[in-house]
Fold each of these.
Amino acid sequence: MTELIEIAHPRVHACGRQPGESYCDTCKVRSLAVCAALGSEELPELDRIVHHTRAEAKTTFIHQGETAESVFSVTEGVVRLYKLLSDGRRQIIGFAMPGDFLGLALHNRYGFSADAVDHVALCRFERRDFDNLVTAKPHFLRRLHEFATHELVIAQEQMTLIGRRSAEERVAAFLIAMRERWARIKGPSVTIQLPMQRIDMADYLGLTIETVSRTLTKLARDGIILIVPEAVRVLDERRLAAIARA
Amino acid sequence: MTELIEIAHPRVHACGRQPGESYCDTCKVRSLAVCAALGSEELPELDRIVHHTRAEAKTTFIHQGETAESVFSVTEGVVRLYKLLSDGRRQIIGFAMPGDFLGLALHNRYGFSADAVDHVALCRFERRDFDNLVTAKPHFLRRLHEFATHELVIAQEQMTLIGRRSAEERVAAFLIAMRERWARIKGPSVTIQLPMQRIDMADYLGLTIETVSRTLTKLARDGIILIVPEAVRVLDERRLAAIARA
DNA sequence: CACACGATTTGATCCAGAGCAAGGACGGAT
DNA sequence: ATCCGTCCTTGCTCTGGATCAAATCGTGTG
């Protein structure tokens, strides 16, 4: 199992600068991003406890069932969160993208595993430190609660998708959802980046890899999308939305 | 659409007692239950804003898409939460039982509908009042955040159930989950109360009513459960758990 | 009691998506 | 360039659960 690479301790940033010296720009940008996600500009308090961390593709850095010792915030790349059944069946319960938090549940064990889809940069916090910070700052807690309830809404939407909608509807809704998530990060585009593999989409949508592939092919044959490596381009906005719409 | 019956305003309890008089016992017990759920004994503050409410079976009291004006806490009975697709397909996203909260998401519209499976008693709060209370009491906020993250864990479990497990596994897991929830409320029992209809189980598990019925019949034929009205009795603990286990 | 109505069970068929197998397409190593 | 390994696509068959259709069971009602 590949190890998580801790590129920076609170006082030793990736750039190699030493304590007391001014911020490494990359780390500063990342810390600020997490602060922004928490709705704050009080960088110093958060920066005292942040560990800047990197993970290569397929590195598993949260293991279902293990003691929850860290809270993460994604700053670059895409992370997949999944649950495994004992016989190997897998359900991906979500993709975490820049700005998202992982491991927020106040349980002492992780309920899922998480690994990097591509190269990922993360801010890591010791749970104890993070809890102290949140306890001291009720508006952080409020923000986290907003995150949690938003994730709950997404999860309920996903239950409906998986429980009651056809393969074509699931794939279309997934494409639309991915496009909206990227739009919030990078601005709107007709090209929907899909850094994850087909098998990840399948395990997220409760389908098989073959069904996902066939469904994408069908959407392409119908002139609704164009399949390109690592992405799809939307050709017919209206029809894609019509299929995805509940 | 049946109306929600507000049986008591803060100062006019169900028993008919008037302001200034001592508590109606039933209302007091219910208010206390909600306080306990919030991890507090500061009854007066909460009681100032609670509306004791009742709903008959099938009364819909949360409508998906409407402005979220109330927060509820169930004190008696079972509530089903569901999302409807435009063509009538329904996904039940959860059952709320005594002690559970509804409408906690900090969104201005409800993301689901809720109605009473059987006769239900609820404590209702105006969202504004509830928010003020929570903002004033960070430990309430913390408790609510715990609720939200716990619900998220349940929702993720359910995604896995619906996305990756067979009909028999879903039904067995549902029975075990229901038994554990009742056990926390009423203490352990080999009889699992099932106040909801087959169609509700089906819409919760992403199956059809026929499949639920057939699966229960199969479990009964295999000597694992005994089907009785409104409930099932567990005959073979071990085998049921083995099927339900992930 | 007979009847009606809704919930549930059971039976018979169907089909969307799973499972299996065989090719492509693409990138990295030699 | 060639070989590999991985991912993706496509064709074919199979099957779990959906769908359609009847009973059967309960419960309330005139």
Amino acid sequence: MEIRSIRGMNDILPEDSILWKHVRDTMHRVLARYGFREILIPVLEETRLFQRGIGETTDIVEKEMYTFEDRSGQSLTLRPEATASIVRAYVQHHLYTSGKVEKFYFWGPMFRYERPQKGRYRQFYQIDVEAFGSNDPSLDTDVIASLYDFLAALRVPGVTIEINSLGCPKCRPGYHQALKAYFSDKQVKLCPDCKSRLVRNPLRILDCKVETCHALAMNAPNIHEFLCDTCKTHFRGVRGYLEDLRIPTRLNPMMVRGLDYYVQTTFEAVSENLGAQNAVAGGGRYDGLVRQLGGPDIPGIGYAMGMERLVMILKEAGEEPMEWPCDLFIATLGKDARRFGITLAAKIRKTGKVCEFSYEPKSLKALMKLANRLNARFTAIIGEDEMREQKIVLRNMETREQVTLPMDDSLPEMIVVSLDNADDSRSTQRPPFPSSFPEKSSR
RNA sequence: GUGGGUGUGGCUCAGCUGGUUAGAGCACUGGGUUGUGGCCCCAGAGGUCAAGGGUUCGAGUCCCUUCACUCACCCCA
């Protein structure tokens, strides 16, 4: 019986992981510009952390967590999201004493026990961005700007950033009441799900995809008429700054977030190119969360981005798939050549070039085929003739040009020079992904 | 948890109302080129038709069960 990976948990093979790497490289580059610093957190936490952080009644906590007891009987949970852990670390290490706004980012797997479907897996990867220590709209703006910059740098096509304000514990209850009042007399027209939402969380009805519910929701009371002055001013500030930065966003008063901790600003990056799971990133402000998890009353804001979904969009948009680079393939024929070649490979690698080697004895024809398969830009041919004459043949795989180089101490250097010259003559390099998403000028 | 779809060489799929040696394309290996890749031509290897049970003279094809994958609902990234 063949052993297979378990449901909802996928292997990311090298042909895809190169794109993942590209996304992560971009993440490091873009987020560093905003002063976000990488934080690494454990995969396992005490179950209580998520119960308190995410909310006891959320779907995540109620039915989606991988929870089990360890050998000492303690209840542990594989993290279903990163925010709670990062808040925990922030509190545990007293990072709020640093005297500055602390900004973190993180990348890693999350776990939720759900039925897998397009863009949703049981082990999935998120990029997570969090900032603590200010309630000023300028921080909201910077966080959203970092998301925008990130997507722009990746040239992600067809993405819109939607924003909204959910109000705060002071003004949201009033809105809840208004929604309940509005939907109550229209209850018969609501779908079964929305009928129960009416009791549990009327906000969710706004999000319903059923035609009739959606139509009713269109005329429902608008959250922005219920925001208190503080929230109103705050949201106006965020929108104003975003406009100053020329970051295009769309106000979506119907947007609702799924986790309990969100207040005021919420936002989502939605793609037209995904399936039913169209959110690439989502986040918002969570001013009560640090306190909720035992820290001081410090505000925070952040977002999470779904790697699989991001990569999915990029793959669809990419004209040519990315490939792992190979600068040089060393093709050897015979024992003596192999011995010389493996040493040469080591020297080439010390220069920083990517170098592959012919491990298995093959005919030259087969070796050339291999060079092709390895995507090698150059092939160094070292056979019996070359060993006898103390020289090697260097072939440019693209132009088919070959030069002969002497086997002396300068050989590695000569090879590197040839490789670099070829680089310079390649006039324009096409970007890996085209874009309809406006690229903001960088560097 | 609920509903739909699909399981045939490594991959993508044909296989008509059950009929006897299960096919194609791509990929792979070898050859055409005795030391030069991509294109072309030729040849070869590779399948208990997801698994189990049933109907039948006969099942890849029909029925049942299980499993897997997939899409959608719920919810979320």
